Amino acid sequence: MSTTTIAPQALTAKDFATDQEVRWCPGCGDYSILKQVQTIMPGLGIPRENIVIVSGIGCSSRFPYYMNTYGMHSIHGRATAIASGLKATRPELSVWVVTGDGDGLSIGGNHTIHLLRRNFDLNIMLFNNQIYGLTKGQYSPTSEENKITKSTPFGSIDHPFNPLALALGADATFIARSMDRDPKHLQELLKRSHAHKGASFLEIYQNCNIFNDGAFEVFTEKGSKMEETIFVENGQPLVFGAQKNKGIRLDGLKPVVVELGSEYSASDLWIHDESDFYKAQLLTRIFDDPRIEGHLPRPFGVFYQTSRPTYEEGMARQIEDAIAKRGPGNLDKLLSGNETWTIR
Amino acid sequence: MSNTSIQQIEDVVIKFAGDSGDGMQLTGSQFSNNTALIGNDLSTFPDFPAEIRAPQGTLPGVSGFQLHFSSNRIFTPGDACDVLVAMNAAALKANLKGLKKGGIIIANTDGFDGKNLRLANYPEGINPLEDGSLVDYQLHTMDVTKMTREALKDINMGMKEKDRAKNMFVLGFLYWLYNRNMESTENFLRDKFGKKPEILDSNLKVLHAGYNFGDTVEASFSTRFHVEKARMEPGTYRSITGNTALAYGLIAASQKANLPIFLGTYPITPASDILHELSRYKNFGIRTFQAEDEIAGITSAIGASYGGHMGITTTSGPGMALKSEAMGLAVMLEIPLMIIDIQRGGPSTGLPTKTEQSDLLQAYYGRNGECPMPVISASTPSDCFDAVYEAFRISVRHMTPVIFLSDGYIANGSEPWRFPQSADLTPIEVKFKQGLAEGEEQFLPYHRDENLVRPWAVPGTPGLEHRIGGLEKQNITGNVSYDPENHQLMVKIRQEKVDRIADHIPPQKIEVGPEKGKVLVLGWGSTYGAIKSAVLDLLAEGHAVSHAHIRHLRPFPKNLGDILHSFDKVLIPEINNGQLIKIIRDQFLIDAEGYHKIMGVPITRGELVIKIKEMLG
Fold it and tell me: What distance in Å separates the CA atoms of residue A160 and residue B332, rounded to the nearest whole number?
């Protein structure tokens, strides 16, 4: 008897694409994010059937339809809660939540912070474009103040959320920021998100070229990117600038920009430490409006990572403990209880 | 020993009433358990304020527990009381109108001091225990507080702690009055306070002091009472409340389906006890998740169902409203899910601790779009077990979210339950799609069987990767579709799928009375006991009246129309402003008559008898 074994074919990015026509606006930042996710997926080594992508409502939430995995396109703001229930019952699955600044921080803000504090082991990708795209251009909870939109013809009054500060405030165990226009960086951070055990919160700056074109231009475009951003790396000093000639130094608790040269060298700078909770607080607060004189560059990268037991582990452990202690449930014993009487 | 005689009686209704801090719920439930153990039939109705501690001594702070027990079969906690235990003036004032003329009042005199009388709004200088106003009743007074302290005089304990045991004095006294063995309560106290010997000791001492007070002292009772065992169907019984029976029904269904339960829920009165109960039984593999809000409760349950567990969410009216969008998603996804609504008074926050059949229309229609869902209801505390088991079966068998309706009255009420053996419960079949069948090229998530049921394909199954969601689905493939014809088709299919469940449920039966006649009393839910009692009374008087009670509210049993058309008149009593009646009129075009009570309390047997007699002419 002879048997032929066929080695499982290594998957490629193409295997993660579906036959559905992608229906985002031409030029939308979502295309790049989809591509990066499809690109890194084969390398994660997870069988396709064990990957689930859950989304809410919004442009970004169409995402699951374009991924050849399991997926659910749910209702507005609730993807995080649905993913929580899924992960609680099926801890072995790799669960990815796709949400946006409206979906995840406005209508679904409550579920987002509670998921983070509970620390389910799943990955949140928050596509931040600072606008409501699907409803055609109202300001969002991350829009800058005084924003003129369809719903705010005289400018918005709301103070915007700082998503990473919010996530850290909810005791997230992994927070990071990347952008649609830097594929390599985004791929790297998607992999880091996946590798993190616990809830990872990855904010992705995503350009809505129809309703909020250029919102992040200064951070993403060649001419200004090097001056306006700082890509943090664990153990490395916070250096930035086209000539790598500037850095951020901590003056007490205050981050200040310094020129590298005669007065300061790299060793005087703030050395990024992903495990430092207090420094992470400062780093999330570097959130200056780039239009304001003397502003600090916007940080990108993994801000903070720590380890805390996941919710689903705790849940499973309680069940194991209960069975170990009391034995598996006995239905007849449960139904009869301790006090019965018999009528003959 | 006193020389009291023991009188055999058939039927007693006792109301325990006191301040919400007086422990009346505990006293009532202990006396109920004891009553159950001696084999009486019984029915209870706890009635407590929405405030945890309303201002002490006031009318809004009165907490009551009504217990009806009998040597006959009974179906309600009783219309009026034979005995009223009043721990303070407010308790007397709030409950006197529910006491039969000639009934017994047992009053704690310490609760009728100047302050308590003022708080109960009695006019200055008036004490009902002393002014002769209670001449129509048998009034017995005792200073419970004083005697409790006396019983504990050798125990080194603060006065406040000592006074906490005074409900045990009353309980002990009633055990004497009804000629009971107190072992069940002694065991309960040992269980509860085993680790606090001082508190255990003081409670036992006071319990016995109350019993001995009746036995030895001039308690002014010349008669004690005894109620014989009820003539009930042979079998082994226990006492059960509706919410506990419901929790057990879910556990039993989970076991018999071999399908683990995930409960995603947010605390809300009167549903929280189901969460409390289920969270205790982790050794049955049950996962309970106290979510951040009602919406996360249901959506986390949807996530669990999608993952191949039975997702359950429990709530009450206001929470139902918050969950309705997610229910729509579950209808589109066509996955099993149980939405359990323990109804209370509404609208808005309404009357949180009072009962009402408030949400039938919400359950039927309360969603955006055409969004049909099976609706199943329970009619008594123990029926919660069977009815929720049935709801579980339908949800799995027909891949649909189901709504289960109970209410505050049966959730907290208790009755004897001839509990089933697990071996006698019908197993529930669960079919997960295991992979592509031979010759099946591509998984079609909305390809249906003869009952229009789609396959349950859970993540982790190779070859079945697919996407579902809230957007309209193309028939069979499940791809997003905005095609007009397809939308109409899918709406019709989802409706037809729910309608076809009628082929798989038992026919409607007539509870009591003839198959055709003058008046049919049609009920659903917790009005069961009152309707059945009223109809039995009228049948005994020779009237042509029948009772039918609907468990399957959507879809209705297929023979319901025939039954309705077999009677000259149909009466539909409800604890709401008329909800089932709207649906019955709509679906069967009959001129049904309603009887609506919207007071947060159950309909009584007596008022129904009057109403039915009017209709009988």
Answer: 35
